Amino acid sequence: MKHFTILVAFLSVFNSCSKDAVVTDNTGYYGKWTLVKMSGSIVNSETTGSAMEWQEFYLFNSNGTFTKSRERNMIKTTISGTYVTTTHSDGLYLELTYPNDSELIGSCYGNQKEILYFRDNNNLSNTWNSCDGPGLEYKK
User: Fold this and answer.
1) 23 CB contacts (<8 Å, ≥6 apart)?
2) 15 CB-near residues (< 8 Å, 6+ apart)
3) Distances in whole angstroms, Cα of residue 37 to Cα of each of 14, 96, 101, 118, 135
4) How many C-beta atoms surround the C-beta of residue 90 within 10 A?
5) Residue 138 CA to chain centroid, in angstroms?
6) Which fold does the domain 26-139 belong to in CATH?
7) What pLDDT, in 10s, does the model give residues 108-139?
8) Nearest-angstrom CA–CA distance, 124 and 118
């Protein structure tokens, strides 16, 4: 367990140091962002394309609203909400707020909020993996 903790700490530090070319244009995120990669907490557990457990996308509108849609086992689920942007030292974050609880919310906190961040101009990622959820990566 001690080795696992050290590995997680190392990967967290390594990942935080690799964030470059972060989105600075607050309009660059408008539009559709499609899930392209899922990863688990086990090393080399990435899946892409049709091999992923589900397919999903976000659609960010310029008026501060978004729609999230997921298709899993041929069942499509959609929910909409609002978002705000926040800028941190490592880049731009999107804080999504949902109107009610939903299985689509990928969050560590259970408070109808979801946090996404830009790894760079072309990659949007979730923060759910910091609490044993899947790592999800989206591309525009």
Assistant:
1) 29, 91, 92, 118, 120, 121
2) none
3) 19, 20, 24, 15, 8
4) 14
5) 7
6) Lipocalin (2.40.128)
7) 888 999 999 998 878 999 999 888 889 999 99
8) 5
